[in-house]
């Protein structure tokens, strides 16, 4: 555990210093106790020899002062270290995050990241200080005491070793049993949580069926949780009792042995008293260890989560990456790609050429691989076979920062910061002038949205942009891409039903985006107008390119694209018909 903690920190010097202080204190405490043997020898006799005891008493006094000073120094150092250690580890995690492939950032991984950076790191750092010290003391102090007892009487030392061995076996067992009980309890708690969510979600149905207070499944889950809790507590308590029993029985055994040694005149009274005091100091920290079991397990779980996170493979970057994109020509050649953990390839031998200054529309049924094409261009993942090139350079040879600097990605669900429209745009280029801001707002058809808003450019968009509709948020993102002067823009056009005004505005905004002479736009198109205005349409099906051509050419050939276009048109008319 101590070793794992030590290796977790990039710069463990502070931890090493802190623990060294604790090691010195624990050993010093043991040695001070050892002074009892010569002192009692000198004092516990018919005529106490104070002169013989004096040097030991002086030594003990000096030791006590040193111990006190160390305690004064180490306590504040420990508390301050908690914050410093957490900050160090957070920095290391954030550095690691910045080297992970963007494809790693799924909802589940993001939640894990948030947990690792906040709770896990803070708790691990706190526990490293608060738990590390007592664990070191509770193991080193008894070890020092045993060494001293060996000098005084080897038989008592052997007995203490036996108690320690039996105690450590019981302790391990207690830790294992309580870990198992905790897993079962977590499982039962998760079951209750999902039933509770279900209860909330299906309230109308439950009320209609007269089960407003919960389904039989819900009650069964609650019963299971209660039983698991009771059984778990019972099971976990047994080894704990056993351990306490081992420690208590151990002390009785030491008492009996020392009494026998004294009665049989194998040791003097002074030694016997010293041995009993030392045995008590040996057993007390051992007894404390059981209290630390829960905290140690919590720390192990946190460390494991942080270690797993730090072991996530990073995005490979060449030693001498290409630091310039000469022209934004995008090219996929024979690309095959399977998602990590995926069963079938999401793309198979895909070849697509998008010339600089053109707009390519990707179409195809759901799951055909359109999003995957854009993810490989943005290097969220690397292709297994084939190549993705930008300006003739393999994206794997490009500096990832250069690639992302020259690229804008407009997702279906645009995330905006809870800030003003102006600041959300300036994120792309803080130094942009007002003329530039107004120009991109016009081109992205955002100007009409801004005019309507009460605070104009200063209107706050709310949490994640909730004050704006999906279509309006996408217009902000398009304006942002224009302001960034990104030469490669990847757009996942909003597929949800938009009102006619938003629909026309987005189509126009994407067309304006593509009008930039030196800009390559790849759009996952969901609207006929976007398809019609593209320079090239690539039709995908089951991860393969099935058609490529201009919209007019593909309409004439009557293939997949023509069929999808007809479907789009029908859906459009159907929607207009129902509205009117
Ligand atoms: N993160 C992922 N992990 C595993 N498989 C994935 C992942 N994302 C997509 N897939 C799979 O890859 C295939 C292609 O998905 P992709 O999202 O590229 O299709 P799409 O054409 O964009 O679909 P849609 O129009 O529904 O967004 C699908 O079979 C999908 O299930």
TrEMBL record:
PROSITE patterns: ABC_TM1F (PS50929), ABC_TRANSPORTER_1 (PS00211), ABC_TRANSPORTER_2 (PS50893)
GO cellular component: plasma membrane
Chief location category: membrane
Lipid bilayer topology: Multi-pass membrane protein
Domain of life per record: Bacteria
Positions of the ABC transporter domain: 330-567
Domain ABC transmembrane type-1: 21-298
Gene3D superfamilies documented for this protein: ABC transporter type 1, transmembrane domain, P-loop containing nucleotide triphosphate hydrolases
InterPro entries, per the entry: AAA+_ATPase (IPR003593), ABC1_TM_dom (IPR011527), ABC1_TM_sf (IPR036640), ABC_transporter-like_ATP-bd (IPR003439), ABC_transporter-like_CS (IPR017871), P-loop_NTPase (IPR027417), Type_1_exporter (IPR039421)
Keyword Metal-binding assigned: no
Cross-referenced SUPFAM superfamilies: ABC transporter transmembrane region, P-loop containing nucleoside triphosphate hydrolases
SMART domains: AAA (SM00382)
UniProtKB keywords: ATP-binding, Cell inner membrane, Cell membrane, Membrane, Nucleotide-binding, Transmembrane, Transmembrane helix, Transport
Molecular function, one GO term: ABC-type transporter activity
Subcellular compartments: Cell inner membrane
Segments crossing the lipid bilayer: 20-44, 56-74, 140-166, 240-263
Entry keyword Nucleotide-binding: yes
Protein name according to UniProt: ATP-binding cassette subfamily B protein
Source species: Streptosporangium saharense
